[in-house]
């Protein structure tokens, strides 16, 4: 038997109804903020991710699904591990920034080669949001406020804690990195293995190490906040002021650095206590340099150390839909919904009358979900009606046809009665639960 690949999950009908419900609620909130939907390819050139995310990140170092296609010469391609790089690529490619400041959202599968466990899969789903064109802190606050409204709409408001940090600008971060490396270099024997390696590849990631002795060492390390310039500080304070004005609680987490290279200034995460070590449900930040960086690929600016071609400020976030659903299940299990409200059973001799009845009912009652079984025996059809979870079964046989009636059976009480054929067209007689 050929099975699905490890970490790649089927989403079965009992689950998919919850997915649709979750997606509808999130799309509704996005619409209320004026965000527009964009659909992006699942595969991009490997280079796009390597450039955007950064070579020394977990994603690019070890998590990407990359392959060469059959073109000559073969093109290195990658299943998208995240959505921002592709969204920025599309925005540049289609000139969406010309005279406009797009606010976009997308939803779909992402792929990362990680160790599968609860809340961590190799194919998982994100809702991503990217807001272009504003360098001002109100844009940061708006995005965060929108996620806050999403938690409210999903009944998760009390489960989420907002953590904030500022990474400053690239030069500020570079200065900090040097100070951090200088501080840690002669103490590197006390670092965990990952952090030791990161000391040369991606030192900032050492800050979010889970290792206790590494964390102890960091207590006396230089602090990122001390390296922020006035502009970065003021920006960060204004974000906090807006959030306070909006009544949104937050914690400053000076060790929040995010795994991707493209962030600057504000970074944030929504975390929960209910999902173990898969605690982060939603994460994002500002990436003012990324548009310029991707625009400059292939130009001379790309090769030099000077600032890249004109960028466009932007900020975004992504949330993990599997984690959101796990959390919703943990807080208030979502009831399984039956696939139909009314089941129509028709004797095989008068089956065409049954089909017509069901079809007319679907026309006259768009609010009611009507299901039938195939034209087997009445008994076999009744069995399917029992299993279907329908609230009501309509039974049509020769007698009913002769009398211009139908029989209806309340599936909860088992009570059966004869009613006129148009009985169901009135909402007073039957409404969907
Ligand atoms: P983590 O620290 O848990 O690995 P991350 O920092 O790699 O997360 P991001 O790249 O910021 O995650 O992705 C945003 C969100 O997508 C995460 O907060 C999480 O909810 C979800 N996510 C990321 N990787 C996975 C995965 N492998 N399986 C399920 N959800 C994921
Ligand atoms: Mg990760």
TrEMBL record:
Subcellular location: Cytoplasm
Highest taxon of the lineage: Bacteria
First-listed, main subcellular location of the protein, grouped into a coarse class: cytoplasm
A GO molecular-function annotation: ligase activity
SUPFAM superfamilies: Class II aaRS ABD-related, Class II aaRS and biotin synthetases
Keyword Calcium: no
Family, per entry: Belongs to the class-II aminoacyl-tRNA synthetase family.
Listed NCBIfam families: hisS
Protein name: Histidine--tRNA ligase
Organism from which the protein derives: Psychrobacter pocilloporae
Name of the gene: hisS
């Amino acid at each position: 038997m050929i099975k699905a690949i490890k970490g790649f999950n089927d989403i079965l009908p009992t689950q998919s109804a919850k997915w649709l419900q979750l997606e509808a609620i999130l799309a509704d909130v996005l619409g209320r903020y004026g965000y527009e939907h964009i659909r992006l390819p699942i595969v991009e050139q490997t280079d796009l991710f390597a450039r955007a995310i950064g070579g020394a990140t977990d994603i690019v170092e070890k998590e990407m699904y990359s392959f060469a296609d059959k073109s000559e010469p073969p093109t290195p391609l990658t299943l998208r591990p995240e959505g921002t790089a592709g969204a920025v690529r599309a925005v540049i490619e289609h000139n969406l920034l010309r005279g406009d400041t797009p606010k976009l959202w997308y939803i779909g599968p992402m792929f990362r080669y990680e160790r599968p466990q609860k809340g961590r899969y190799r194919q998982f789903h994100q809702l991503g949001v990217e807001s272009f064109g504003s360098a001002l802190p109100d844009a940061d606050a708006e995005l965060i406020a929108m996620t806050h409204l999403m938690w409210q709409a999903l009944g998760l408001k009390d489960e989420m804690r907002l953590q904030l940090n500022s990474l400053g600008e690239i030069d500020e971060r570079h200065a900090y990195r040097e100070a951090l490396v200088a501080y840690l270099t002669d103490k590197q024997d006390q670092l965990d293995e990952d952090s030791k390696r990161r000391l040369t590849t991606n030192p900032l990631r050492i800050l979010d190490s889970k290792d206790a002795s590494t964390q102890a060492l960091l207590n006396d390390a230089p602090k990122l906040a001390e390296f922020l310039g006035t502009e970065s500080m003021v920006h960060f304070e204004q974000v906090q002021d807006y959030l306070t004005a909006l009544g949104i609680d937050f914690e400053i987490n000076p060790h929040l650095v995010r795994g991707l290279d493209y962030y600057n200034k504000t970074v944030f995460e929504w975390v929960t206590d209910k999902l173990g070590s898969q605690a982060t449900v939603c994460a994002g930040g500002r990436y003012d340099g990324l548009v310029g960086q991707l625009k400059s690929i292939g130009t001379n600016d790309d090769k030099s150390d000077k600032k890249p071609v004109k960028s466009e400020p932007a900020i975004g976030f992504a949330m993990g839909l599997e984690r959101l659903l796990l959390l919703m299940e943990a807080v208030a299990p979502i009831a399984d919904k039956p696939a139909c409200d009314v089941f129509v059973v028709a004797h095989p001799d008068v089956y065409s009358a049954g089909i017509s009845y069901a079809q007319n009912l679907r026309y006259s009652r768009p609010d009611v979900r009507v299901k039938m079984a195939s034209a087997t025996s009445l008994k076999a059809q009744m069995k399917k009606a029992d299993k279907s979870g329908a609230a009501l079964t309509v039974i049509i046989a020769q007698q009913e046809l002769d009398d211009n009636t139908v029989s209806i059976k309340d599936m909860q009480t088992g009570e059966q009665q004869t009613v006129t054929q148009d009985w169901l067209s009135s909402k007073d007689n039957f409404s969907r639960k």
